[in-house]
Amino acid sequence: MTQSAIPDYRLSAELTQRLMSVQQFTEIDSTNVEAMRQLQSGRSGCFLLLAHSQTAGRGRRGKVWQSPAGAGIYLTLVWAFPVTITQLQSLSLVAALSVHEAMQSCGVAGIKLKWPNDLMARKCKLAGILLELKQSSEASHVLFGIGINLNLARAVRDSIEQPVTDLSSLLQGAPDKSLVVTRVVESLLDNLDEFERSGFEPFRARWNALDFYLGEDIVLQTGDRRKIGKSLGVDETGALLLQTTTGLEKINGGEIFPSLYPANHELLREPER
Ligand code: BTN
After folding, report:
1. Is the pLDDT of residue 223 over 90?
2. What is the dihedral sign for C-alpha 111, 188, 236, 263?
3. Residue 248 and residue 241: Cα distance in Å, rounded?
4. What is the mean pLDDT of the chain?
5. Torsion angle, CA of 56/158/167/215, rounded to 10 degrees?
6. Per-residue confidence at 186, pLDDT binned at 50, 70, 90?
7. With contact defined as beta carbons under 8 Å apart, do 185 and 15 qualify?
8. Ligand 1 mean position, distance from CA 272 (Å)
9. What does the pLDDT look like over 79-113, one tens digit per residue?
10. Can you give the pTM of this predicted structure?
11. Span from the CA of 56 to the centroid of ligand 1 (angstroms)
């Protein structure tokens, strides 16, 4: 792994003062993996890792996050909570809301959220978030791994299994990467402060107002099982409320599947083994 001598991202002094450190890598396996390595070797506190490219970028549910140089923003913000964290699910929704706020302030309009924490624009995925946790007796460190598509080459788009978009297409020009990172991290830090004070409640209505699937029939995949129902948004813990034929279910893990197609019989087949 290499650390860049000349940082690509110019962050304001005001922002860097809120963090213990900011490290920038020209290339790394994964900013989340590096953050976990640092925590395991005794590091603590709130810090930020940024990479120009990742050789082993990680997505949710064991997927690969393609991370070629300059095609995306790849960052991990580590935040230390003084208590045991039991609300990882609602925190992941807060992270998605934070990225949404940042996109809006950078002039990207019309973004919706897909439970639990994807950002969608024009029905295509713009950004994804991978949360990881390291608990110890002194503190709980949450790793907020955020990937935002900046400028995906055709070959990269074609190799991703769902429709994707990027900031260059949405803004019709190259986005200011430093501004985007600044706004994302500022917004996340502000919202984490609020979450520590008041929990998920202040965020719930905002999340539901941006829910791409609110009131829609969806198919939800959890492990090998699929459930069909109407999405009623999230509850006070961040669980997805699914109205099924047998009653209201609270879903705590899984993925809306497949990403953007309406529920139908074809999708209800058991996955092939
Ligand atoms: C998803 O599957 O939607 C989550 C993608 C998260 C990707 C980011 S890029 C920065 C950080 N480092 C990783 O290896 N993954 C996250």
Report:
1. no
2. positive
3. 7
4. 89
5. -100
6. very high
7. yes
8. 26
9. 998 877 778 889 999 999 999 999 999 999 999 99
10. 0.91
11. 10
183/98 Cα distance (integer angstroms)? 9
Tokens of 123: 């029905």
Cα separation, 80 vs 40, in Å, equals 14
Atom of ligand 1 nearest to the CA of 58: 14
User: Which atom of ligand 1 lies closest to the CA of 59?
Assistant: 2
pLDDT mean over 201-209: 96
Mean pLDDT of 239-256: 92
Share of the chain above pLDDT 90, in %: 77
